[in-house]
Amino acid sequence: MQIRDVKCYLLQGEPATRQESCGARGSIAPVPPGISGLLTHDQGFGAVDPEGFTFTGEEPEPTYRLMIRLVTDGELDAYANYATGYNPRELEWEAKAFLARYAHMLIGVDAFDREYIWQRFWMAQRFMYTGRGLLDTIDRMLWDLASRSARLPIYKLLGACRESVPAYCNVGGRTIDDLVAHAVKRVEEEGFIGCKDHSYRGVKDNGEMARKLRETLGDDILLFHDAVESYTVEEAIKIGRVLEKYHYRWIEEPLQDYDIMGLKKLCDALDLPVLTLEWIGAIGGQPYNTAPYLALQAADIVRQRGIGITGQVKQAQLAESFGVEVHGGDPQVILAIGNDPVFEAMGVLPRPPEEDLDCRGTVVVENGALSIAWSDRPAVEPDWDKMARSAVAVI
């Protein structure tokens, strides 16, 4: 199925009122007790600060989105939303930039040659300074095309390993008691098998939090601690031993990812698994950044940040060869591999009615588990002629 052309559709969306708020993002402050020199997010997960600047637009404004379409010589095309914004002229020039810079790397290539395309756009990060977003978008749209063509969800195309995996939730709060109450509410009401805190309170208070969570939730609930780079090596060892006492499943991102020797020291010192490589991966280095950490035993669990579906599979298989788990991948990848043991759920996603299912599959999170509901029904394809008539511009 050869890619013959690339088209960009500038489409008008629903009006929206703009808002920017300091309270939703908080600020940066020393990690308690303030003697380590490290800085962290002062609010933490789920704790919104009512203070600070907030700007709200006077009225709703028109919004726009840019869709990229890879036109093939087959019955189906690949497509994906590429950018959104309030200024159609800026999006028009983003479309022109895509066509000028990248379309020639796709035209004439078989749309099923995903590895070839992945390798080309991997190197484009270096030679064209694209960042990871371009490769991620293109790889996912090609996997989506393969899914619609085969009438199978991606995890089946990859070779499914399982049909469901346990799911946990994230919890937070302005105080430790708020965080514990949030954990109780989510676990009991939404049925998750565990919860992960994002608490940056320092060793003493996070140790107290761990005790209260375990005492309140009981021994059967999985607990995870995500520190987001807020410890020194010595502090991470101290809190790690506390978390071991309360049977935590792992400590996540305790140090900066760049501190590979500190992470090795931490992994050597603790029985508690250390999960890392989230931030380095987010800026475009994975799957390949994973290799030296595994070789040096500086990671017990690897955060899944491989670029695109293709990159995530590469990273998972690399980790598997070292006997190491990964975590945080695309649901389709999670169900296709054997070493991503739990799913980090943002909320409950009930199974849709049977008549709404198609071959792409729909992510379901309910009863404490992730699954993908699907049928062999073909996906509804865009009416390109109708879209062209309604578009602000076709480029």
Helix vs. strand class? alpha/beta
Record field, number of beta strands = 18
Mean pLDDT: 95
CATH architecture heading of the largest domain: Alpha-Beta Barrel
Biggest β-sheet strands, sense, barrel: 10 strands, mixed
- How would you name the CATH homologous superfamily of the largest domain? Enolase-like C-terminal domain
Low-pLDDT stretches are none
Strand content: 15-25%
Rg value: 23 Å
Quick one: CATH class of the largest domain?
Answer: Alpha Beta
Query: What does the overall shape look like?
Result: globular
> Distance N terminus to C terminus?
23 Å
Q: Helical residue percent?
A: 25-40%
Assign the CATH topology of the largest domain.
TIM Barrel
Q: Given the structure, what is the number of helices? A: 13
Oligomer: single chain
* Total tally of structural domains: 2
How would you describe what is shown here?
There is one protein chain. 36% of the residues lie in helices and 21% in strands. It is of the alpha/beta class. It has two domains: 3-15 and 60-150 and 379-394, Enolase-like, N-terminal domain (Enolase-like, domain 1); 157-373, TIM Barrel, CATH 3.20.20. Strands 8, 9, 10, 11, 12, 13, 14, 15, 16 and 17 form a ten-stranded mixed beta sheet that branches. It has a four-stranded antiparallel beta sheet with strand order 7-6-1-18, sandwiched between helices. The longest helix is centred in the middle third of the chain and has 19 residues, at 132-150. The model has no long low-confidence stretch (mean pLDDT 95).
